[in-house]
Amino acid sequence: MTEPLAPGATIGILGGGQLGRMLSVAASRLGLKTHIYEPGANPPAADVAHRVMTAGYDDTTALAAFAASVDVITYEFENIPTAALDQLEALRPIRPNRNALAISQDRISEKAFLNEIGLTTAPWAIVTTAADLDAALTRIGAPAILKTTRLGYDGKGQARIMAPADAPAALAEMQGAPAVLEGFVDFSREISVIAARGLTGEVAAYDPGENVHRAGILHTTTVPARISSAQRSDAVLIAARILNALDYVGVMGVELFVTPAGLLVNEIAPRVHNSGHWTQQGCAVDQFEQHIRAVAGWPLGDGSRYADVEMLNLIGADVAQVPTLAREGNTAIHLYGKTEAKAGRKMGHINRILPRT
Amino acid sequence: MTEPLAPGATIGILGGGQLGRMLSVAASRLGLKTHIYEPGANPPAADVAHRVMTAGYDDTTALAAFAASVDVITYEFENIPTAALDQLEALRPIRPNRNALAISQDRISEKAFLNEIGLTTAPWAIVTTAADLDAALTRIGAPAILKTTRLGYDGKGQARIMAPADAPAALAEMQGAPAVLEGFVDFSREISVIAARGLTGEVAAYDPGENVHRAGILHTTTVPARISSAQRSDAVLIAARILNALDYVGVMGVELFVTPAGLLVNEIAPRVHNSGHWTQQGCAVDQFEQHIRAVAGWPLGDGSRYADVEMLNLIGADVAQVPTLAREGNTAIHLYGKTEAKAGRKMGHINRILPRT
């Protein structure tokens, strides 16, 4: 399929979390329907999607029926079992492609790929045994951070090593999983570029946002980021290089460290990204619609921004602030429809329109 | 119920058209669900609503089940049968209230109400017979316009009378329905105020938009309207007077004529209004969310605007321009998911962000 999807067509989305929810709303604005595939009952996306399939990723009958009911398949999270993807890919196009997904599912393949296309990352080394870790610490030095190679997000599966003596405890935290040691980077700030590549190869990027984390979870993203215009174009060029190298179709989040030596790539996510939620208030075409446009073969929005915005995540009990936040001027609330406010759970976010500088 | 609805609560919406669709999306942002009541199959709102009840307004079993499944009831169109409203009102609160709905369902009661609270309208007279029409034309003069008192929208049920000789043909067009003769108003422009009143009586208004019609259907709304700041405050005060007089809860659209003698009220609509669609790009809280906030007992957004916007309706075959419009910068597309592009049918709209003046 290379023709743009016509209104009334259906986009299949693997995963029914808040990203799938906001992708569904964006698809509706373009007259497109969504069908959500999600093992859990009553996922956040269910309220706003045309259809929901409640089934596991090992249910080959459900996967086949799902594929038959959609025109193209995309996803809102990275950790989809390979066998399910194999089955789906034989039936419908998957966008972004399998290669992009495979690379970003594994920290080692991601870093190797980034270095291969000439981009700088923090120094890193593969660690499976205590001997690997000793050798890696000797080369990279402490402080450093040990991370599992797969399934890591929001600070999970990570252990800091401030001095070589911390090494055994850090390795134990990996619970035998393959890991990667990353050298600490002396960065002044972290920024994100949310960029998209269309089916015809066009690339569009949003203005980089500046990220602040708390307890390993994104806390705020603010646009414009406090960076120079040279850094701004560098960031966009880095994102474009990654998208083109992967023959990517869709939106990608690229996290970068701003250092005295230039921009380093921290990590990439082959999907819409929490640090791009500000685009819902700042841009005519937000990241969710941009992703839908890309996977549907539509022209991309140009990424231009008409407001300064601060995005603030509502994590766990933060959601209790909503009645107060609802009284604030120039503040857009986005709740995800989750009923239980567990600690560390992303319940929603707000976008504050800032006075223009 | 006077407590704000908690996330997870359900708002029942009578009518499943594009306004119900955009109300459902807005409700989802606040973590609220919607249940749509609509006689027609596959209405535009179905794709994004939590539930849809497909049943007629004479189906008392369906109406009872619908009411039992929701916390509060609102509507996206005025012409709901009285018996259905009677049944629903006994079971759940209806917002805006019955009185507001009754007044705006009938041009005569609407004009009488507006005059009663001290607002100016075009000169008008009730017309049932040829003798009524002759007498009315003598008093009001031609040109004038004859309109059915009920069920009129988008220029339907209207006949222009340029000279007394046009009277018989105009009356025949009413097909025996009660009608009202309105004198022509010499206005320089038409503006709309979209205003809201909350459950606690607070009122918030958006900046007035300037409307241009084509063939009796809204074509564009542009903010800011080209009016003086005195006219801007007059417009907002007029809207507030109407809302307070009706003890109104929800969003109302108020159409005003700008004349040398001041602002005249053209008509009011007890719901979100096509001329308020620009708020989707111009405001942190758009008219749809504002209506949901009001009927859910939440605090209102303050109505402040952070962008200049032109809203353009896509009527019938206009929707074929979407592939071209999708390539325009700073242009947000909103399609309603209707498959057949009949002449005169509202298929979608776009909001163009304008360079700030």
CATH level-four homologous superfamily name of the largest domain in chain A: ATP-grasp fold, B domain
Instruction: Determine Rg of chain A (CA atoms, Å).
Output: 20 Å
Count of folded domains of chain A: 3
Contiguous uncertain segments of 5+ residues of chain A: none
Terminal Cα separation of chain A, in Å? 44 Å
How many beta strands in the DSSP annotation of chain A?
A: 17
Number of helical runs of chain A? 11
Main CATH class of the largest domain in chain A: Alpha Beta
CATH fold-level name of the largest domain in chain A: D-amino Acid Aminotransferase, Chain A, domain 1
Percentage of residues assigned to helices of chain A: 25-40%
What average pLDDT do the residues of chain A reach? 95
- Approximate strand percentage of chain A: 25-35%
Assembly state: homodimer
| Order of secondary-structure elements of chain A | EHEEHEHHHEHEEHEEEEEHEEHHEHEE
Q: Which CATH architecture of the largest domain in chain A would you pick?
A: 2-Layer Sandwich
Q: State the shape of chain A.
A: globular
Largest interface: A-B, 47 and 47 residues
Structural class of chain A: alpha+beta
Largest sheet of chain A: 9 strands, antiparallel
Structure report:
Chains A, B: One of its GO terms (molecular function) is metal ion binding. Chains A, B: Belongs to the PurK/PurT family. The structure is a homodimer of 357-residue chains. In chain A, a hairpin with a 2-residue loop joins strand 11 (209-214) and strand 12 (217-223). In chain A, helix 1 (18-29) packs across helix 10 and helix 4 (98-105) crosses helix 5. The first copy, chain A, has three domains: 10-94, 3-Layer(aba) Sandwich (Rossmann fold); 123-183, Dna Ligase, domain 1 (2-Layer Sandwich), CATH 3.30.1490; 189-354, ATP-grasp fold, B domain (D-amino Acid Aminotransferase, Chain A, domain 1), CATH 3.30.470.20. By secondary structure, the first copy, chain A, is of the alpha+beta class. In chain A, 28% of the residues lie in helices and 29% in strands. In chain A, the strands form three sheets. In chain A, strands 9, 10, 11, 12, 13, 14, 15, 16 and 17 form a nine-stranded antiparallel β-sheet that branches. A four-stranded parallel β-sheet of chain A has the order 3-2-1-4, sandwiched between helices. Chain A has helices at residues 18-29, 60-68, 82-89, 98-105, 107-116, 130-140, 167-173, 229-245, 279-282, 287-295, 322-325, and strands spanning 10-14, 33-38, 51-54, 72-75, 124-127, 144-148, 158-161, 179-183, 189-197, 203-205, 209-214, 217-223, 250-259, 262-269, 308-315, 331-335, 346-354. The termini of chain A are far apart. The mean pLDDT of chain A is 95. Chains A and B meet through helix 1, strand 16 and strand 17 of A and helix 1, strand 16 and strand 17 of B.
